[in-house]
């Protein structure tokens, strides 16, 4: 399969912010993702009270869903609007604090304490800032990362995982010559080489 036409494409942070501003967010789904429901047991693997990471989280409703099940959720998203929308969509009170390690970085935390959403680029984060995770829900994240940044993204994600963590990854399969993306087409062979 030829992914040549997508390899050079770059979507800037500015463009993502614009999508949020314009309400051009067709990727957001009001209903919890059916694949998370289907594979929840794989993610949890019999464990409770997990730390679960949502890379490039947007205002994914699954964050509320997992928090309500007693897990702690950490997300990262460049759009402050997305994060504020998340809390207001679910009528969740929150507070806002700066993140000293990240210039301009902010953290929005639910008053209940179990949802912490970082407003910054994912590439500003490291395990020394946000710790490590027992589970990852990656939907609209790897496939939204610019193709040139995939290696860096995958190395970071591996670094953020605890030894026995589970990583659920949703990709999309289509002919990459027909759409410019995102979502980008990430072939299975590339996923294997990125994550091992
Ligand atoms: N995972 C979410 C959103 C998918 S769209 C969902 O399932 O609905 C991808 C999101 O990543 C957008 O909201 C965009 O603003 C955000 N984003 C893009 N680049 C980013 C980066 N470098 N760091 C953090 N967030 C980013």
Automatic annotation (TrEMBL):
Q: Entry's Gene3D superfamilies?
A: Vaccinia Virus protein VP39
**Residues bound to S-adenosyl-L-methionine:** 16-27, 56, 77, 121-122, 139
Q: Which GO terms describe its cellular component?
A: cytoplasm
Q: Where is this protein localized, as stated in its record? A: Cytoplasm
Keyword Cytoplasm among record annotations: yes
GO MF, one term, reads: thiopurine S-methyltransferase activity
A Pfam family in this protein? TPMT
Q: EC number(s) on record? A: 2.1.1.67
Which reaction(s) does the protein catalyse, per the Swiss-Prot or TrEMBL entry? S-adenosyl-L-methionine + a thiopurine = S-adenosyl-L-homocysteine + a thiopurine S-methylether
Q: Name the domain of life this protein comes from.
A: Eukaryota
Which GO biological process annotations does it have?
Answer: methylation
**What are the entry keywords?**
Cytoplasm, Methyltransferase, S-adenosyl-L-methionine, Transferase
Report the sequence similarity comment from the record: Belongs to the class I-like SAM-binding methyltransferase superfamily. TPMT family.
- What is this protein called in UniProt? thiopurine S-methyltransferase
Name the source organism: Serilophus lunatus
What's the source species' lineage? Eukaryota, Metazoa, Chordata, Craniata, Vertebrata
